[in-house]
């Protein structure tokens, strides 16, 4: 649906009304001052804050206001007068158009410096709790080709860049790639992605080219029509195993020949699957995944433990980085072999099984039933006998009866989703009063909010940022809390 032109005029008028409060010269030759949360940079003008994207601290730019709020504006650069000394040359041809790797224009040391700063600032500003000196951020073992999972989307009408449009050339618009920033319905065709090791790029291009040559219908994201919808590739560097999942809108006689072609061309594929999905979104946790060739899973290995990863399984997307993360969490837990450990938001039981050899017993709790089944299988195939797993809403499972049945934990490890822990779960932790809590987070902001609540009974004694996603603003953080 096209936006109402009157509505658009009202929005632009509101933006312009706020922007007019700033003298025009204040938006020209502006020096970008600092990096803040979510990878945005900041400029301050009197009592007004301007958040700017696509820039680096030290850039001198002209700005165009794109959004207006009571106490801040958002803007984009329209002209660069001077480039920051912090800048480096991006290595990807799709940088600036693709929605990922938005920090490629910054050197890695600069990236990690700002991630460290983000953790420190967030814990102090939002958490408002006393924290020790933050340990130096742990770097990602790899800066390119570090992801073990990528999802690509088919589109019958791919996004063209300004350069492509200006060239006047005729482009095949049938695309298989990533969403452009802020647009769910626009897909940029990707030639080479630096995030996942080969044969990821080769498989994606082979499928795209086969589909083009054989006139298979690429999906229409808005109307939800066509045949080809989504492609997922999962790789396991530790074992060399490889999974491919093809999502189609409907059953069609062309699916099996395509899968046969892919399997023959890439014999290294150990798990080839497809899903029929005509829902309004690409999630398929409630749908049947058909294993067409090979095994219905791949396996990752870590310290001699093997973890099965199925089409619906969660596994940290940076395998080597996850090993760093788990070692830090285990070190913070200070296990001697006698502890009862609660592993909350256990997922497929990766952390639970990873620490089980150093603990007396581990109890894992997870909302997703399929993940709990995976966790039990992972214990079974590794001969781990001192774990047990339960499925259900965390705030409901962690009842007084549950704690009485399993015992008061000596250590709680919690690794919640980006939204952090429900306030009722925090209350359960305060009631349990475990001597130590190890809080692993992918979102320092929600972690800081939870730390403020836990401050009633716990003090923060260690903070360790971990970089799992180079060239993005995302950062993991591990905090050790001890009972006061």
From TrEMBL:
| Domain TRAM positions | 20-79
Q: Which GO terms describe its molecular function?
A: methyltransferase activity
- In this chain, S-adenosyl-L-methionine is annotated as bound at 316, 345, 366, 415
InterPro entries named in the record? MeTrfase_TrmA_AS (IPR030390), MeTrfase_TrmA_CS (IPR030391), TRAM_dom (IPR002792), U5_MeTrfase_fam (IPR010280)
The protein's UniProt keywords, in alphabetical order, are: Methyltransferase, S-adenosyl-L-methionine, Transferase
Q: Name one Pfam family in it.
A: tRNA_U5-meth_tr
Residues at the active site: 442, 442 (nucleophile)
As recorded in UniProt, its EC number(s) are: 2.1.1.190
Its GO biological process terms? methylation
* The keyword Nucleotide-binding is assigned to this record: no
Similarity comment: family membership: Belongs to the class I-like SAM-binding methyltransferase superfamily. RNA M5U methyltransferase family.
Q: Which NCBIfam families match?
A: rumA
The name of this protein is 23S rRNA (Uracil(1939)-C(5))-methyltransferase RlmD
Q: Which organism is it from?
A: Hymenobacter profundi
